[in-house]
Amino acid sequence: MDEITAKLSKFFKNDEESFRVFDQTQVLETVEETTGTLSMMLGGIAGISLLVGGIGIMNIMLVSVTERTREIGIRKALGAKRKDILFQFLIESLVISGIGGIIGIFLGLILSLGMANFMRMSIKITVPVIWIAFSFALLVGVCFGLYPANKAASLRPIEALRYE
């Protein structure tokens, strides 16, 4: 690098703004920095998507609790315990988020295979990554389904039966 810089300096008569010499390590550092920035951006987008999906699940579950208030009251009046109602709505939340996770995985597979074919590049899809994605979908379902499930489980039978 020093030899090339010296020869170019002679050629351009010590005008160092006319040329620039760099090696592969500098290029590699730039690529790694760009990759890190893109990874953080994609992580942020994924986090926002999970939050939006979770809020959607919570809204669906809150509407479900409101629509089924009388049913909850009847079940509690017939002896259903708090944990029974809680598990009913948590399982419903898990089913919704699980179906969303499966749809997301299939769309991701189809889009990544399509892009790989279009761009003529190879991709590697691993089962552990798919399981992690599906687990996150279920975790979002549990986290955002807890509030509606708890709201349903804490209803008093008398108030629930009077609800119109």
From TrEMBL:
InterPro entries: ABC3_permease_C (IPR003838), Macrolide_Exporter_MacB (IPR050250). The keyword Cell membrane applies. The keyword Hydrolase does not apply. Residues 45-155 form the ABC3 transporter permease C-terminal domain. GO terms for molecular function: transmembrane transporter activity. It is found in: Cell membrane. GO terms for cellular component: plasma membrane. It holds the Pfam family FtsX. It comes from the Bacteria. Keywords: Cell membrane, Membrane, Transmembrane, Transmembrane helix. It is a multi-pass membrane protein. The chain crosses the membrane at residues 40-65, 86-113, 125-147. Belongs to the ABC-4 integral membrane protein family. This is ABC3 transporter permease C-terminal domain-containing protein.
